[in-house]
Amino acid sequence: MTDAIDFDSATATELSQQLAEGKCSSRELTEYYLKRIDTLNPAINAVITVCADEAIAVAEAADRRRASGDATPLTGIPLLHKDIFCTQGVRTSCASKMLDNFVPPYDATVVSKLNAAGTVTLGKTNMDEFAMGSSNETSFYGATRNPWDTECIPGGSSGGSAAAIAAGFAPLSTGTDTGGSIRQPASLCGITGLKPTYGRVSRRGIIAFASSLDQAGPMTRSVEDCALMLNAMAGVDAGDSTSADIEVPDFRAGLADDIKGLRIGLPKEYFSDDLSPDVAARIQAALAELEAEGAILVDIELPHTRQGIATYYVIAPAEASANLSRYDGVRFGHRCENPADLQNLYVRSRSEGFGEEVQRRILVGTYALSSGFYDAYFKKAQQVRRIIHQDFKNAFDKVDVIAGPAAPGTAYKLGAKAADPLAMYMEDVYTLSVNLAGLPGLSIPAGLINELPIGLQLIGRAFDESTLLRAGHRLQMRTDWHRAIPPLSTKTSPTLGGQA
Amino acid sequence: MRWETVMGLEVHLQLATQSKIFSGASTRFGAEPNVQACAIDLGMPGMLPVLNEQAVKFAVMFGLGVDAAIGKRSIFDRKNYFYPDSPKGYQISQFFEPIVGEGVFDIPMADGSLFPVRITRAHLEEDAGKSVHDAYAGQTGIDLNRAGTPLLEIVTEPDFRTAEQAVAYLKALHSLVTYLGISDGNMAEGSMRCDINISLRPEGSEEYGTRTEIKNVNSFRFVERAIAVEVERQMDLLEDGGKITQETRLYDADKNETRSMRSKEVANDYRYFPEPDLLPIVITDDYIEAIRATLPELPGAKRQRFIAQYALGEYDAALLVSTQEMARYFEAAVQQGAAAKLVANWILGDLSAAMNRDELSISDCPISAEQLAGLVARIADNTLSSKLAKQVFEGLWAGEGSADDIIEKRGLKQVSDSGALEALVADVIAANPDQVAQYRAADDAKRKKLSGFFVGQIMKASKGQANPQLLNQLLLAKLNDG
After folding, report:
1. Do B324 and B455 sit in the same domain of this protein?
2. Which of B237, B268, B290 is the last residue of a domain?
């Protein structure tokens, strides 16, 4: 048996083991990933800021910490942060021209917690501007490419993070999910991504898109890594009033326990004729594996799934329209040259600083909140949101987990939907209801269709990430879909750890 | 036509919390620009508000002080507008479900009556920063020290008909909030700012006229003047057949006029919606009762007690309880055994006048309650006439010691010895035979007038120390006897 390890596809759990056994150092890992980013990122554009010098220094500190016997499982593990997480002293742009010059004087709570655990930040990942998009095409820094096919989009908005994990730029990345922004790109890039329950992870220091929907989560190469990373990310935060003051379990504990008798609900709305037969086949194959593990499949209904789209596209833009008001050219961010007066300063700074999709959503949100339209749009959407929440509650009376696709299809060609916002919004049909209900959702690789990945989505009860992770881990124990590697030209893996 | 003025008031009260309503930055007044603004106050990306529980407590205290319904569940909302001193582009306020609901606040008026003002609501919100126009040539600076200072906006029904009522309400409000300790109420520093909604209607009409809103008036005197000039402006317009435009106006104290602010301000659509970054405030009965148990005796209750316990008039009692310090001073003096009514008169009369003159408040008044009680005791036991008492008061104010010390030192004791006085009377009568003859020839009405001459002469001779009652008695006996 060999314990040689391929850094490009190794999980953080495996790397942590290597570090613990002294088979490699954090510095070696860090240098390896930095080099790989340097070599391959130009073709992928998943990473928009690289913190090479800082990363090496942190890695060396991690190695010393490990030597002193004070390491956590994450100490010395390199990772990337989506560029929506504020990082002290490192540009945090949200992939917008508006924040191209913004260097926060603080770390997001999630960043602080991961730093405290000893992770090594390699850099910041590309994303849709202000997380508004499902394709990563709205980034001010150019689109991210899917490592499985560089003609294709990686999904979004955490598309840079998903592509980076798939391309082997790091074993771990943070992501955020407002309507599917972790799960959909995870599906399209063949990685594992978890959107935790709303409130499970602090939002402090994460640049807000839609405050009642935003949630940060791990993007990794395995369910086990999601558990590992969530352990470090989760917990109540005095700096975020909406973070939940609820016990945080050890998400790695009991991960391999069996799932005999676990009731998995299949919403008929997720398996309608709209779902392509290819995708349906992959999802059914994954479900069959879960059934083989002892899970029981149950037909259920989520009657207001379709209304979820309209509901989401009122609430999210409405909240965004206010959240993005602070970018006014006065205190930070882009300011237009030579403003004629105050009004001119606002109009030009914002028109120049925001891209088209961001402007569209600000306008939609402003409209939905306007006097005379509030009741018809925002208030109505709030009501439907409660109904959708109730749909899930009703379903969870019958089942423990809900399963379905994470996206309607595999990655599509760049530009294919760029001119059709509504088609783009449909990308989120299976994911955004979960945000409206504040529930946890996990996207797990479920194999390839024409050499492009597709993900299975598992949805859980509020604060029951453990059950999702257990089901996902059992699936990954018996399949190797999550081990699939995109056919990138440069395979640069060393054989550190050597032959046994 | 006779017009009736209809007014409702909105008061923005800065709450006296140590830190801001949604951040840990200090609320201290007067610091260098922007040194008391943290990342939350600056609206930095990703920063989230965290509610200061003290602000909630203060709002509940206010609610209890005006007998209002306390919202068991209240929420924050975003009020959206762009302005450089509003760092997030929205203000966190309460629109849909305020923390304090309807209440009634009884205002003591100068005629001794109580004027009940209906409180519509009071809600928590954050203050904005300030634009600094005079620091940079051709540019405007922004000072965000004030941004995020907790405000309680207190809104009344349109119950006011006169400026006197409005000012009485503001004074009573000032008194209440300082009793509660929830605000320093300092109008000059902007701790209490008043918006006046004002309209006119023909007397007898039930419908309200179109109103204007005068923003941010910051002294009792300016409130009175602003109302006067705005009523006059509206009346002139209406009598000339004109129409009032619903708008926001500013009171310019230098020119003593109100003028229209930009009309854009009026057309703002604030697009209120529930603030998703904050949880609803849930208030339990236990929480309310625990706060109620800590409330001090409030001005209304204290006023009633003073009337009952010290037999004071309604308005005197209202004035005495207007600040806790003055009420405490009064009771301290009375506790020395001084007559309550006399103490009240001295506090509200000479003492208040002297404090106003020297711009002092009761807490830095040079005369202690004990010293005032000592003065009042000497008046009550006839040692001092009211005229002498004023001289002693001046001595007290100048720090010359106790009333007795001053009487002794200045030799101000009233002469109430009838033997000594009789001699003085006899001397004066002997020295003025013509006037005596004139007096004796006059009728009763005339005599009364002429006796003043003798009183003056005798007082002069006694250096003002003659007991006036005794002097009168002896003089008349002598004059009428002759």
Report:
1. no
2. B290
Instruction: List the CATH number of the domain containing A288.
Output: 3.90.1300.10
Query: What is the C-alpha to C-alpha distance for residues A119 and A172, in angstroms, rounded to an integer?
Result: 10
DSSP A120-187: EEEEEE--SGGG--SSSTT-TT-PPPBTTBTTB---SSTHHHHHHHHTTS-SEEEEEESSSTTHHHHH
CATH number at B449 reads 1.10.10.410
Which of B50, B142, B269 lies at the smallest CB-CB distance from A371? B269
Instruction: Tell me the CA distances in angstroms from B388 to A271, B354, B379, B384, B467, one per residue in order.
Output: 102, 17, 9, 6, 10
Residues A400-404 have a mean pLDDT of: 98
Quick check: B55 contacting A, CB < 8 Å?
Answer: no
- What residue of B is the nearest CA neighbor of A378? B273
Where is average pLDDT lowest: A240-254, A280-294, A392-406, B264-278?
B264-278
Based on the residue annotation, tell me whether A139 is a catalytic residue of this protein: no
Of B48, B80, B84, the CB nearest to A342: B84
Domain of residue A236 covers 12-304+385-483
Domain for residue B408, yes or no? no
Q: What is the ipTM of this complex?
A: 0.94
pTM for the whole structure: 0.91
Which of the residues A16, A25, A82, A135 is marked catalytic?
Answer: A82
Total H helices, total E strands in chain A = 15, 11
Identify whether B475 is part of a domain.
yes
In tens, the pLDDT along A185-236 reads 999 999 999 999 999 999 999 999 999 999 999 999 999 999 999 999 999 9
Asked if A319 and A211 touch (Cβ cutoff 8 Å), the reply is: yes
Nearest by CB to residue B48, choosing from A210, A239, A318, is A239
Residue A2's pLDDT band, with cuts at 50, 70 and 90, is very low
Q: How far apart are CA B397 and CA B271, in angstroms?
A: 58
Domain presence at residue B319 = yes
B79 in reach of chain A (CB within 8 A): no
Residues B82, B173 within the same domain? yes
Asked whether residue B342 falls in the same domain as residue B426, the answer is no
| The length of chain A, given as a count of residues | 500
Determine the longest span between alpha carbons in chain A, in angstroms.
72
Q: How far apart are CA A442 and CA A193, in angstroms?
A: 6
- Identify all chain A residues contacting B278, using CB atoms and an 8 Å cutoff: 241-242
Beta bridge partners of B251: B258
How many domains, in total, are found in chain A?
1
The answer to whether residue A495 is domain-embedded is: no
Residue A471 inside a domain? The answer is yes
> Is residue B127 a part of any domain in this protein?
yes
Q: Does residue A336 belong to any structural domain of this protein?
A: no
- B259, with CB counted inside 10 A (0-12, 13-18, 19+), is exposed
Shared-domain flag, residues B337 and B285? no
Q: Which two tokens stand for residue B113?
A: 């009556």
Chain A contact residues (CB < 8 Å to B) = 85-86, 92, 94, 99, 102, 104-106, 108, 203-208, 210-212, 238-242, 318-319, 321-322, 324-326, 328, 330-332, 342, 346, 366, 369-371, 374, 378
Last residue of a domain, one of B337, B358, B384: B384
| DSSP one-letter code for A87 | B
CA distance A182 to chain B (A): 19
Of B148 and B134, more confident: B148
Enclosing domain of residue B345 = 299-384
What's the mean pLDDT when you consider all of chain B? 92
For residue A344, tell me if it sits in a domain.
no
Closest CA to A407 of A441, A457, A465, A332: A457
